[in-house]
Amino acid sequence: MRDKFRGKDYLGFKDFTKEEIEHLLSIAQDLKRKWTMREPHEYLKGKSYAMIFEKKSTRTRNSFHAGAAALGAQSFYLRPDEMQLSRGEPIKDTARILDRYFDGLYIRTFGQEIVEEFAKYMKNPVINALTSLEHPCQGLADLLTIREKKGEFKGLKICYAGDIYNVCHSLMLGAAMFGMDMYIATPKGYGAEPSIVEMARKHAALSGSKIVFTDDFDKALKDADIVYGNTWHSMGENEEQKEQRIKDFMPYQINSEAMSKARKDAIFMHCLPGYRGEDMTDEVIEGPQSVVWDEGENRMHAVKAVLVATSL
Ligand code: CP
Ligand code: NVA
Hints:
By secondary structure, the chain is α/β, with parallel strands linked by helices. Helix content is 45%, strand content 12%. The protein has two domains: 2-134 and 297-311, Rossmann fold, CATH 3.40.50.1370; 136-296, Aspartate/ornithine carbamoyltransferase (Rossmann fold). Helix 3 links the parallel strand 1 and strand 2.
C-alpha cells in the first residue's frame, strides 16, 4: 500500500478506494497516538511544503502548519495576491516552478480543475485543502472521528443538514465506501454534484448502504447515529444568495428538537465554522452530544497521515 501513495496527489475521495482510505485512517490513528503520548515522529525532517489559500481558513491552514512542524517539516504560506498568479501568470508555469522548490503543495481554491491542473504540472504531491467539489482532508478527519466515537462504521446512519458542496460530497463518498447510510436533508431545489452522487451510489451498492436525498428532515433524523451540520452559504460559492438560503434552510436547523429526533446516543458533528442561530444552535454545539472539538483536532492527525503517506 505504501508504494501506492508515495508521490501521489490527494485531490479527493473520488480518486481512492475504500482500502486506500482505510490505510490513511490507520496512519492517522497511529500518528494521533504518538502525538498524544508526546512520542517524537519527525518522519519528514528536511522537507518543505507550499500552501496557497484563496479562501479563508482556521482549521485547514493551521492544522497543516502544526502537523507539518510535528513531522519535522516546514510549511510556507504563499499569499496568492502577492504571487504573479494574481497578475495572470499561468497555473502551469507557477506549478512547475513551485515543484522545483518544495516537496508538495497544499491548496484551497474554487474549482476542482485548478487543483487538478497544479497536480498535472507538479511531480510532487498536491493536496486538496478544499475546492467546491471536495474537502478530502475534512472527510478523513470525519471518518476518524466517527470510528473513535462509534467503534465501527457499518450500519450507522448519518443525517446531514447543510450546504451540499465539498464537505457533503467527501462525506457522502466516505459513508458509502464504509457502509454507512447517509440521509441528506435539504429544501427542494438544492442538490449535489451528479457525478459524486453516482460514484457514491456505486460504493453504496458494494457496501450495502444507501444515499438518500429528502426534504423530510424528520425522516433523515429518525434513528440517526450522527447528525452532521454545515453552513448554508459556502465561501465564495453562493454567498450572494445568503438571505434566500437562510429562509430556505431554516426548517433544517440542527437544534435541540432536531437532536431529540435522532438516536439518544447520536453525536453532533460539524466541519465548522458554524453559525449559531442558523445551521445549528448554541445549545447543540455546546451540548453533551457535540464532538466538534475532537473532530477539529482530528483535522491535524488526518492531514499528517496524508503528508506521511504521500511524501515517504
Ligand atoms: N472545516 C474547515 O475546513 O475549516 P476552515 O475553513 O477553518 O479551514
Ligand atoms: N461548505 C463550506 C465548508 C467550509 C469548511 C464552504 O465551502 O464554505
